[in-house]
Write a structure and sequence with these properties.
Elements lengths: L1 H62 L3 H36 L5 H4 L5 H20 L12 H47 L5 H26 L9 H18 L13 H8 L1 H11 L1
Helix pairs in contact: 1-2, 1-4, 1-5, 1-6, 2-4, 4-5, 5-6, 8-9
């Protein structure tokens, strides 16, 4: 009889340990996958910013009359173009690898119509390179046109769809992992009730820590989706979600509200004189 009890107790301990390890592995895999998604989202955001900057810089370089400022604009344009091309290549490679490891089809937004970020991104880079070559060759400025804003819009729109697809996939995987984790955790708690949770207290604390990290990762994804990365202010997505509620609230309360639009004069002078880091710092202070 005593031997049966000992065997049952040992088997229960092994079962509890196995369930605890499964929970730990599930949480760890989810956190690793979330880290990959965060890195991809950050890279897509950088590419969106660079795409807009390339168009802006071609216009600044084209219309700038002061030789020194013109040279600075061209140097900055070359640096941003190199960063955009590097990020573009890295994004394509990383997306293929992500699809293989995660079993997704997110790379289709990058390589296939109608969004075809790869095509629009390469076209944007080619147009900027052509703009630089024409100016370097000394062509008449009147015959050299800066890159069209529409090219940046197409690239930016495709990257936005890609970013949304990654966030949606991440949220879906988080939900699946959370449901599976709850199932395992329920069984674990039942066993712990009979065998004594104090034996596995360190493991339980580790699981809780992993759960908190996963929640933090989920909150960060939500924050990234609704806030500007530089200033931390709500972005267009958040505004589109909140404005109908605000309007409905004030309409029912028969009260009004104000929307303030701020525009910074001579902001380009700050970037040209003190650098883009100073310009970003100014935007953060204003925000």
């Amino acid at each position: 009889m005593i031997r049966r009890v000992r065997i049952g107790y040992c088997l229960a301990i092994v079962a509890v340990a196995a369930m605890g390890m499964i929970s730990f592995i599930l949480q760890n895999r989810a956190i690793v996958a979330q880290g990959e998604v965060n890195a991809l989202v950050d890279l897509v955001s950088e590419q969106q910013t660079l795409a807009q900057r390339l168009v802006l810089l071609t216009n600044l370089a084209h219309h700038e009359q002061a030789p020194i400022k013109r040279a600075v604009s061209f140097n900055t344009l070359r640096e941003d173009l190199a960063a955009f091309e590097t990020g573009h290549a890295r994004l394509g490679t990383t997306l293929r690898s992500f699809d293989e490891t995660q079993g997704t089809e997110i790379a289709q937004y990058f390589f296939d119509p109608p969004y075809d970020v790869n095509f629009f991104g390469r076209t944007l880079a080619d147009q900027v390179q052509r703009f630089l070559r024409y100016h370097s060759a000394g062509h008449d400025a009147a015959n050299v046109q800066p890159v069209s804003q529409m090219q940046s819009v197409a690239t930016h729109a495709g990257l936005s769809v890609l970013r949304s697809a990654m966030i949606e996939h991440s949220e879906k995987k988080l939900a699946e992992t959370s449901n599976l984790y709850r199932l395992v955790l329920s069984a674990l708690l039942v066993l712990l009730a009979f065998e004594g949770a104090f034996i596995f207290a360190p493991l339980t604390r580790s699981i809780k820590s992993r759960t908190d990290q996963l929640k933090q990762a989920r909150d960060r994804m939500s924050h990234l989706a609704n806030h500007d990365q530089l200033t931390g202010l709500h972005n267009r997505t958040a505004m589109a979600f909140q404005f109908p509620k605000i309007i409905e609230h004030h309409a029912s309360a028969s009260s009004g509200f104000a929307l303030v639009h701020l525009d910074l004069d001579d902001f380009k002078a700050v970037n040209d004189t003190y650098g883009h880091a100073a310009g970003d710092a100014l935007l953060v202070d204003v925000g």
